[in-house]
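Subject: design request, 649 residues
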């Protein structure tokens, strides 16, 4: 075994070294890669990145520069689960007159069969372009003839006139990486700041002046400065539950343009300050200008006199309801309006900024103090507070003050209460856009979302039936309203997927309105569990989770639950006729700053009354608390699924 591991490590080292000999290595896959059977430092890996080599450099155009990004990636597929890594997505930027082009795409799959190394080339006709959002598209394709044991390889070039967007580089993947190198060739006209995320250093980092031919731009002579960043043998990023986006926590290198230097020697700082950024938003015609015009148009388009006698809360609710009932969100996240307020009024639909900035204008017009808050949605990643860049933000919500109480709102969410934002916006903090102020607003609520389930279970040695009523509040209620609303079929499918057998017409939705809890009730029937003459009953049926979402031994990033959650379950089990209680679980209580759990079972004449509740008190837990959170989930699963038994008299 030691000899085998030594051989594999030698092969691993050879693959790593060979991959770095020359950046232009495409098409040179040897038997070392084909014979590579598993990753020595992650034997359970479904695939491994053998080499990932990237390069960014600048090319002169007629009067400026464009940035070119090249990449060659080679992946070994170990098993069936790893075949998904043969679907490749190449994102590229496109907004207005600024765009990127994917060029020189090649891809192939290598297989070794019957002593012959075969090569299957990608047919470019099988590539297609998908829209990700208003700014990003992606070229997508599936590698041909992929099977366990295959090596896939692809290369491409992205040409861009968007010099702000010097490509970031992700060293870490969700599978192990043997070798990852990024080469950046800088010119003296653009200066960038960079940030290495989730690592303290590179395995190798060099920076040298190119000794090749001197270049000339507008009479200014220069040489490229070539920087190389390399990391080896990186573990897979283990993506678990309770994470907004892995982009916040993987090892990667971020670049941001900080200064532009003209050939005359004058320079422009791109790295701004938060106060300057706030004021830039207010000056922007698609933000501050749109906000001002919305306020002005409200006085002309709406009869504001009807608001004169309303309380501030009534004014706020009236405006929010008016917008939600008359305008539709086009599902596009944006911090800038896409049209004028006049056209928005005409079209009756728009992006997030069209709707929420317009709503703020209306609120201001009726005397409500309201301002925009720009945010980064959960999938977009967290804000880096040391880097005041507009590109971090992709959404805008409403901050209003009603009778001294601060409220966050989002008029794109018709199913939300008027003082509620959706989960996608609950991402750490947002920046208030108010003249000459820098105020960061906490987006994740401290008020718990509650779910209460009440069960009445009747059991005999022939059948088991139960009546269940569930009530949800806050974000839990919003989730259900968005998923089900008043659709009984959708809700029934969700319940049957959990394991319930629902008789026809037993399900009813009691309340689904935004201002109320989401409530529903139903009946379920099943066969009893009888072992050695004893009847066993799970007091909460299928309501309690059975699998711990915390699966890793340790965790180095926060546990982001989005919002505090409280779950409460009450169950009354009527003793089966001719039986008596044989066993009830012990009482338990846990209560600390992080978590609370309470379990109690009482035998009362011919029935058993069981109560169980647990409460995760924080929206986000630190990584150091991972072991505790994992333990709490184990206790929930163990106690919540413990059974009560009945034996014949």
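Subject: RE: design request

Done. Sequence follows.
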């Amino acid at each position: 075994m030691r000899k085998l591991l030594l051989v594999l490590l030698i092969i691993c080292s050879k693959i790593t070294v060979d991959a770095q000999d020359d950046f232009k290595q495409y098409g040179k896959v040897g038997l070392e890669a084909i014979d590579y059977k598993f990753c020595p430092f992650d034997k359970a890996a479904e695939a491994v990145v053998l080499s990932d080599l990237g390069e960014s450099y600048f090319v002169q155009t007629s009067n400026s520069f464009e940035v070119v990004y090249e990449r060659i990636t080679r992946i070994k597929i170990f098993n069936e689960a790893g075949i998904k890594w043969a679907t490749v997505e190449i994102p590229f930027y496109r907004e207005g007159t600024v765009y990127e082009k994917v060029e020189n795409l090649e891809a192939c799959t290598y297989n070794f069969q019957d002593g012959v190394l075969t090569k299957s080339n990608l047919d470019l006709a099988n590539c297609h372009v998908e829209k990700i959002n208003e700014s990003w598209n992606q070229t997508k394709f599936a590698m041909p003839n992929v099977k366990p044991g295959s090596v896939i390889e692809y290369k491409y070039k992205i040409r861009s006139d968007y010099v702000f967007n010097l490509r970031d580089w992700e060293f870490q993947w969700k599978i192990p990486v043997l070798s990852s190198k990024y080469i950046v060739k800088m010119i003296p006209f653009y200066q960038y700041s960079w940030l290495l995320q989730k690592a303290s250093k590179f395995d190798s980092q060099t920076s040298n002046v190119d000794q090749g031919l001197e270049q000339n731009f507008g009479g200014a002579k220069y040489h490229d400065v070539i920087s190389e960043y390399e990391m080896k043998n990186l573990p897979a990023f283990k993506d678990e539950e309770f994470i907004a986006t892995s982009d916040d926590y993987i090892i990667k290198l971020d670049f941001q343009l900080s200064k532009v230097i003209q050939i005359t020697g004058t320079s422009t700082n791109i790295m701004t300050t938060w106060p300057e950024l706030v004021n830039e938003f207010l000056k922007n015609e698609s933000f501050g200008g749109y906000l001002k015009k919305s306020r002005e148009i409200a006085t002309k388009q709406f009869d504001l006199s009807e608001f004169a006698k309303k309380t501030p809360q009534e004014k706020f609710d009236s405006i929010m309801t008016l917008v939600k009932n008359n305008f539709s969100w086009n599902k596009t996240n944006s911090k800038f309006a896409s049209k004028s307020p006049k056209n928005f009024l005409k079209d009756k639909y728009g992006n997030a900024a069209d709707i929420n900035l317009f709503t703020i204008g209306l609120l201001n017009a009726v005397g409500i103090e309201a301002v925009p808050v720009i945010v980064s949605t959960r999938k977009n990643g967290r804000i880096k507070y040391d880097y005041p860049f507009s590109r971090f933000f992709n959404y805008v919500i409403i901050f209003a003050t009603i009778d001294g109480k601060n409220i966050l709102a989002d008029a794109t969410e018709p199913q939300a209460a008027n003082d509620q934002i959706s989960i996608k916006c609950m991402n750490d903090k947002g920046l208030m856009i108010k003249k000459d102020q820098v105020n960061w607003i906490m987006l994740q609520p401290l008020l718990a979302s509650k779910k209460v389930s009440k069960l009445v279970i009747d059991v005999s040695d022939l059948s088991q039936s139960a009546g269940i009523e569930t009530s949800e509040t806050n974000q839990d209620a919003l989730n259900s309203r968005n998923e089900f609303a008043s659709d009984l079929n959708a809700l029934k499918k969700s319940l049957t997927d959990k394991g319930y057998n629902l008789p026809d017409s037993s399900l009813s939705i009691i309340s689904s309105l935004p201002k109320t809890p989401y409530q529903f009730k139903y009946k379920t029937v099943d066969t009893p569990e009888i072992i050695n003459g004893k009847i066993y009953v799970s007091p909460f049926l299928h309501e309690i989770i059975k699998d711990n979402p915390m699966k890793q031994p340790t965790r180095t990033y926060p546990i982001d639950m989005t919002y505090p959650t409280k779950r409460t379950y009450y169950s009354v089990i009527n003793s089966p006729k001719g039986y008596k209680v044989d066993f009830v679980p012990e009482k338990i209580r846990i209560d600390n700053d992080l978590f609370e759990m309470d379990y109690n079972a009482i035998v009362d004449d011919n029935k058993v009354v069981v109560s169980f509740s647990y409460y995760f008190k924080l929206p986000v837990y630190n990584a150091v608390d991972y072991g505790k959170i994992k333990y709490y989930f184990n206790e929930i699963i163990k106690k919540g699924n413990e059974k009560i038994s009945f034996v014949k008299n």
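Confidence is low (pLDDT under 50) at residues 1-23.
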